[in-house]
User: Which sequence fits this backbone?
């Protein structure tokens, strides 16, 4: 586990930045604010196919049902500067870890981790992509993201 004592910024990363990572951004932002933590929080994708699009309507629907806001979130692609600008870069799955390592400067790759390393209440290691599934997939993603967010916030306090 990384040293989290000086973490002031977190970037959540999935492939297209329209399902998993914006959900993580919305949930983590909400929970951090509720705990009085002031952090820079953002999300991005390893591919730019959905750049400037709003999060998937299904992700927004299940998130809003649980009280999370997606206002102002728009997809973007990870940039090399993100590795300088964020203390912690959390990928949703191992494919995204590999893609991040391809673009991260070698001396900054230590900032990359799997988001679910912080989860406490499930056996999953990766957040599955819900894009081609139904509403239950998006609810499951939210369950995982809430769990990992709680675990990460406990470590940051």
Assistant:
């Amino acid at each position: 586990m990384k040293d989290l004592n000086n973490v002031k910024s977190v970037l959540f990363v999935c492939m297209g930045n329209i399902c998993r990572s914006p959900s993580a951004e919305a949930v983590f932002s909400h929970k951090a604010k509720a705990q009085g933590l002031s952090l820079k929080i953002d999300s991005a994708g390893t591919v730019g196919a959905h750049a400037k699009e709003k999060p998937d309507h299904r992700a927004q629907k299940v998130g809003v049902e649980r009280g999370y806001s997606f206002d102002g979130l728009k997809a973007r692609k990870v940039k090399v500067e993100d590795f300088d600008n964020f203390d912690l870069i959390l990928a949703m799955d191992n494919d995204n870890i590999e893609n991040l390592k391809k673009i991260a400067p070698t001396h900054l790759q230590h900032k990359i981790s799997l988001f679910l390393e912080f989860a406490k209440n499930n056996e999953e290691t990766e957040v599955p992509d819900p894009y081609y599934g139904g509403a239950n997939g998006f609810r499951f993603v939210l369950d995982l993201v809430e769990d990992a967010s709680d675990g990460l916030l406990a470590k940051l306090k």
Observations:
- The longest helix spans residues 135-156.
- Helices lie at 20-34, 57-65, 82-85, 94-103, 135-156.
